[in-house]
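Incident log entry.

Two folding requests arrived from the same account within the same minute. Monitoring flagged them as a possible duplicate submission, but the sequences differ. Recording both here for audit purposes.

Request one:
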Amino acid sequence: MLIGIDGAPLWVPQTTIAMLDRAAARWPGNTALVCGDELLTYAAYHDRVMHLASRLVAHGVSGRRVAIVLRNGIDIALTLFAVQAAGGATAALNPDYTAGELAPILAQIEPVVAITHADLAPTLAPLLPGGCPVLTVAELLEAGGASDPLPDIDPAAMAVLQFTGGTTGVPKGAMLSHRAVATNVAQREAVLPTLPGAERIVCMMPLYHSFAAAMCLHLAAYSGGALHILPRYRPDWLIDTIARERITRLPAGPTVFNSLLGFDGLTRERVASLVCAYSGSAPLPHDTLARWEAATGVPIYEGYGQSEAGPVLTYHGPGMTLKQGSVGPALPLTELRIDGEGPLGEVLARGPQIMDGYLGRPDETAATLKDGWLHTGDIGRIDADGYLFIEDRKKDMAIVGGYNVYPREVDEALAAHPEVREAGAVGVPDSYRGEVIWAFVAGEGIAEADVLEHCAARLAKYKRPARLVVLDALPRTAVGKIDKQALKALARAMLAEASDHAA
């Protein structure tokens, strides 16, 4: 049982669609979704989702996986709920991925249906298995015929296939059940309570991202609040929306808060409706938190999690002590421990929101899930009050503007350039994005612009090197591997030198 901060028991849904069912029954006339000039009440939202789900059942979605390649808007919100209502599992992918990035992911998904925009269909279709239809939401909504009955949903069945990068360069699909995703919403509600039927939430983060789905789409449905979706992030759009729509909740990553602090349109008056902001997906610098609260008076509650954990494991909440450098205590029903003999070690987590494993990757699953404990790959410590502090990463990964980037994938893109003899990509601290990717390469006749253009054709924008450094040879370890730690040290030295010159 989950108890709210008021001491009352909380409703714990067993499926995500149950949240939408309840909201439509309790608040049918309330605004549910807004994007541009389009607005749906909860009654209309629910009707469209059910119609889409019926059409998807006719396409054999039940018990299968659906590839979703959609930009932010009404369509992706409808689709994410509809696929799950039809008994399928959503596999939402970045619409800005190149064909080379999409191909290995789609091969793993083996989707029965792919849903995208008309302009993206020509790129997507050749990458799909034979017979897999490519459909738009408009086509599905316009389809006539008798409605196919919707299946009973098993809470233990897979609802979400969330892809995360892999250290081998091959993305992994974390399998999350209906119960895991839905329970995680209630776990957060126990710490971050909402006002039923009255919240106004803004979403400028892409809804294919697990943090956005959790803290925007599902938060709105659980609370019966209005979700205002922006096509993408622009500071003027965001502040205008907050002021005009009297937004109460702002989920975002640290990059957004940093950006807004440099925007002239940010004033206390224009964000006065905000009850709070939520930060996740990347560490929030204390300086950013302090400057934001001084500028706006709006608290930021920071949490921690990952795709494999539903996605949230910890959160600060109202009334809690905010400890500098901490991501808060574990959510209710969640256990954390440190693997190691000392106070510092790998963070392990256990709870109802943890994934069932990686699709088709038994070895990776066995290495990550041991005796019910998720091995996060992050290095941290837990203080006497149960607050978690993340100190380092065990796995080779950078977090660029809230997105996980595995340098191995960048290495492979660089190595495909005919003039690059060897390459090593590393994450480097950045005041705006948290980290950026620097690429160190060696070879003959390397032209920086040519190599960067080569990367742009193979990597999504957030994965591309922010800087290319050409060396005669890359440093190597005693066993002959490229020494990534030495490259990080070189990057830090170059940053320090640049800072000295600037001063």
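Request two (distinct sequence, not a duplicate):
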Amino acid sequence: MALTNGPNLNSVPASGQQTLSTNYLDLNGSGGWAQQYLPDLMEKEAEVFGPRTISGFLSQVGAEESMTADQVIWSEQGRLHLSYKGNVSHATAGANPGTGVASIAQITIEDDIDGNVGAGFTAANHGIRVNDTIIVSNSDGVFKCLVAVVADDVIDVLPYGQSALSANTVSKATTILVYGSEYGKGQSYVTAAGTTNTTDARGANEPAFKTFSNKPVIMKDYYEVSGSDVARVGWIETTSESGQSGYMWYLKAEADTRARFNDYVEMAMLEGELALAASEVQGSTIVAGSTTNATLDAGTEGLFAAIESRGNITSGVTGVNAATDLAEFDAILAEFDKQGAIEENMMFVNRATSLAMDDMLASMNSYGAGGTSYGVFNNSEDMALNLGFSGFRRGSYDFYKSDMRYLNDKATRGEINRVAGSDAIRGVIIPAGVSSVYDQALGKNLKRPFLHVRYRASQTDNRKMKTWVTGSVGATTSALDAMQIHYLSERCLVTQGANNFMLMK
């Protein structure tokens, strides 16, 4: 019987019955091969808590890519258009260049439209220039203006309409948007002070970048069976696709440890937290035995933490009232409109939120309708359903909803959420597709999935999911009268464009 390599099977048969790490047969991750062809391998056990593993969240939405450094660094380009927050006042307005007439208003730029000051933006290097046409909006109304003078973070503006801004003798919070420019016939570029620019240069606006980073965390575990009990090892004679025949081995009891470790790897990518500089864990030393110390790398940023830090949070769609839930869901769409407006999104939610959304959609009599494209699933609704997703369309957005077992199971997030109150996590909304980022290592723009995993690997060692065997049983490596099967993974999560993500709490 030929053995076909599955997604998690990298074993090759050994010529003899040797318990090597290279010929271990993973009953859980062999693409279902063992369960399909060797049903008699499985002991008659009642799994009273179901299959017990979590939903495979990252395998459904993420991609994986290797890395070699201690951290992954990426840069995200800021918004294309120039929009700012500031204050407007007439009291200190300067003179209109060329006429000597007092300028109608003076605006002090404080931060960009997202409230960012410092990282990639300072008041003195904003993108507003002389001869720009802008919209000025505050409690007095909306005004179209021409920029006359730019003095660092202060600009003097001339309105096209009535000089109603002259009433602003008291500073007022103001939003500013650049929508174009205007020049007279034969007019050259002018300096920020409004005088003729002999170099005929205006000053170019450079794209603004924000740099983010994450670092991998090392996770370990092992399973041990004594030399006396090694008879529990089972052997299978197989033939590989290349025609190589030999033996592979398995341990039924070890499968639980391996499955639990695989879940730990995924949960760490969801729940991971970076330690604060003043925290107890930052720089702590862990004593291994009595002689070896190791300094912690202070965590990794998981999905939930990334969205809370840089993304969006909603407390809506609770199931209390279907009409209210619809209004709250539309508020989510309005927030996405303010960001990248990614049209296809994956939703992973707990049972209560999933039912609330079902009721909301049922009240519209349009569940699963509205022209859902299923583009993520090769335009196949059947494929989406087979993978456990239901699709619906609202506005210009397609959503693919799936229950997330991790948020329901009492032994994982289920019970934590029950007692967490407003801090409970009910689900996540994740943009599908890819975005462009600047890769600092390669020095160029690349397209990568919004959410993906980076794992440590080199030409000699792949630490994505590493397994090896030690002890005196089989291939002897030590005097230990046992067989130890070790698991190790070193990885981190990259949450790219977190402003397009939504955390449901």
